[in-house]
Amino acid sequence: MNILQDLSFFHLIANASLLVQMVxxxxxxxxxxxxxxxxxxMFAVRAAMRQTRDFEEAFWNNPNLVTLYQQASSKLRHxxxxxxxxxxxxxxxxxKLKKTHGVDSAAVMDGTRRAMRARFQREMxxxxxxxxxxxxxxxxxxxxxxxxxxxxxxxxxxxxxxxxQATLAQVAPGIAEALVATAMGLFAAIPAVxxxxxxxxxxxxxxxxxxxxxxxxxxxxxxxx
Length: 225
Prior knowledge:
Blueprint: H1 3-6, H2 9-14, H3 18-61, H4 65-74, H5 82-98, H6 105-127, H7 131-160, H8 168-222
Helix pairs in contact: 3-7, 3-8, 4-5, 5-6, 5-8, 6-8, 7-8
């Protein structure tokens, strides 16, 4: 028996038991999906950080809120950053309540803050989408791979029961194919965990900037005549 041939990667997968092959297929699919979300989230977070920085500069450099609102409203929805949409939602509600008779300043500001909080929550839901999938892949994939490993080792030892004398050539392929499942589980889990931690930290920083801007914008509106 040619042990090197038996221990080649594709040969091990092809000769694995059905359950181990199913586990490997599931892990491969999950890994591809996680990489898709990793790259998708990378571009989304980078764009959100760039748009937030640009709008903060535009806001503090332009004292005319009406002009800034008109510029924001003239853009298409997908071209507006999250912070820009929070600003637009707050300013729209502020102007609407200001034009309503019988509404005092406290009620105007309270309604403005509620509108910004609602927009803030929707933007955070969008930014955090698919993060739970990455967290699930990172925590569950090693155990799924371990299931395939345990099953493969059980099959390898069951096969030895019909052999009079066990040799390395008889044991190695079964053990190796079982360990491939663990390796694939780790291959799926490690990038997902790293990406989740990175993007969760970046999104938390964006959330802090959004909340700080909402408070500062509220203060600016309170000083309006």
